[in-house]
Amino acid sequence: MKNLIEKLYSTGNLTDSEFQRLIDSNEDSGLLAEYADRVRRKYYGNKVFLRGLIEISSYCRNDCLYCGIRRSNRNAGRYRLSRKEILSCCETGYELGFRTFVMQGGEDSYFTDDFMCSLISDIKNTYPDCAVTLSLGERSFESYRRMKDAGADRYLLRHETASAELYGKLHPSEMSFENRMECLFNLKKLGYQVGAGFMVGVPFQTTQDIIKDLRFLQELKPQMIGIGAFIPHHDTPFANEKAGTLELTLRLLGILRLMFPKVLLPATTALGTIAPDGRERGLKTGCNVVMPNLSPVDVRKKYSLYDNKICTGEEAAECVACLQRRIESVGYEISAERGDAL
Ligand code: SAH
Q: pLDDT tier at 314 (50, 70, 90 boundaries)?
C-alpha cells in the first residue's frame, strides 16, 4: 500500500482500481495518517477550528431510513428552539470563544424563510466577526438565496451518497437524489461555502459507492467534507444493521485529506461515539475541525439521530473544556479564528 499512499500524497489522485485497493486494505494505516497529518500541518499548522452546533429542531418532514428523527419515529421526542433560545446559545457560544454558529435541524416548516432571515441578520449584526452556517436540509433556490442575502455564510448538506441506486435504498421513494444534488450545486452557485459528505458503513454501501462519493466530491469541490460512521438507531428500519467501523472512517479521512489538502475536515460526533478516542484519532489523520454542542442541555437527548450519541449531558462550557483537553492531548490547539477554508 505504501506506493499507493505515496502516489496519492504526491498527486492527490488515484485511479478507481487503485482507490478500491487502498480502501479495501487495512495495511499501512499509520503511514496514511502520517502523510495526512503532514498535509494538514502544511496548510493549517496545528490549528483546530471550533464550530458551535445549535440543534434547532427535531421535527422533520423526511423519513430517511437511517435517521432517528425521521417522521415515522413515533417515539422520538420533538422540540424546536425559539428565537430567544437560539440567540441565547449564540451568546453563550461567543463567550466561550466560538466564531462560527451552525444551526442544524430536521426539515421543519416552522423555520420559514422570514423567520430564518430575521434570525440570521440579527446574529450577524450582534456578532459581525462570526460566520453563520446553516444545515437545514433541502430548500428552494429562492430560500437559499434569501438566507444568503440575510448574511448566512456557509451551508452543510451532506450528499449522503453519490450513487442514485444506494440513495434509493436509504430513502423513501418520495425523496429525490436529483434534488439533493441540485441543492448542493445551487448553494455553490449562490456563493455559500458548502459542506458535503456521507456516512461510512451505511447499509448496502460498497467500495464502488464510496469511490463514487470521492469522484463526486472532486466535481463539487466543497469547502468542508463531513463524514462519520453510520450508527444504527433502535427506532428505525436499520435498527439491527451493523455500525460503520472506526478503521474505515479513519482510512477515508486520511484519503480525503490527501485528495483535498485545504478542505475543512471535521472530527465528527459520530467518530467520538464509535470509539472513545475516535475524535483524537481523526485529528491525527487530517481532521482540523470539531463541532461542540451548544444546544440547551434539556433538549439534547431529543436530537437523537443515532444511538449512544455522546455529549448529550454536559453544558456547552464543559464540552469545550473536554474538547480542548482532547485536542491538546494529541498536540493540536484550538484556534480563535472564524476558520474559513484556505
Ligand atoms: N436535516 C438536515 C440535517 C441532517 S442531520 C439535512 O438534511 O442535512 C446531519 C447528518 O447526520 C445527516 O446528513 C446524516 O449524514 C447524519 N446521520 C443521520 N442519521 C445517522 C445515523 N444513524 N448514523 C450516523 N449519522 C447519521
A: confident
Say which residues have a Cβ less than 8 Å from residue 234's Cβ, sequence separation at least 6.
307
- CB-based contact 102:135 (threshold 8 Å): yes
Question: CB atoms < 10 A from the CB of 86, how many?
Answer: 21
Classify residue 90: in a domain, yes or no. Answer: yes
Sheet of 100-105: strands edge to edge? 52-57, 100-105, 131-135, 154-156, 193-200, 224-229
Number of domains in the chain: 1
Please state, in angstroms and rounded to a whole number, the distance separating the CA atoms of residues 66 and 239: 8
**Which long-range contacts (C-beta less than 8 Å, at least 24 apart) are formed by 171-174?**
171/62, 171/63, 171/64, 171/65, 172/63, 172/65, 174/63
Could you report the per-residue pLDDT of 30-44, keeping only the tens digit for each? 999 999 999 999 999
Q: Which atom of ligand 1 is nearest to the CA of 305?
A: 19
pLDDT confidence of residue 290: 96
Cα 248 to middle of ligand 1, angstroms: 18
Using CA positions, which residue lies closest to atom 10 of ligand 1? Answer: 158
The CATH number of the domain holding residue 289 is 3.20.20.70
Count of all residues that appear for the chain in the document: 342
The structure's pTM equals 0.98
CB 306 near ligand 1, within 6 Å = yes
Range of the structural domain that residue 65 is part of:
2-335
Indicate whether 341 belongs to any domain. Answer: no
Domain annotation covers residue 342: no
Q: How many helices (H) and strands (E) does the chain have?
A: 14, 9
Q: Is residue 76 part of a domain?
A: yes
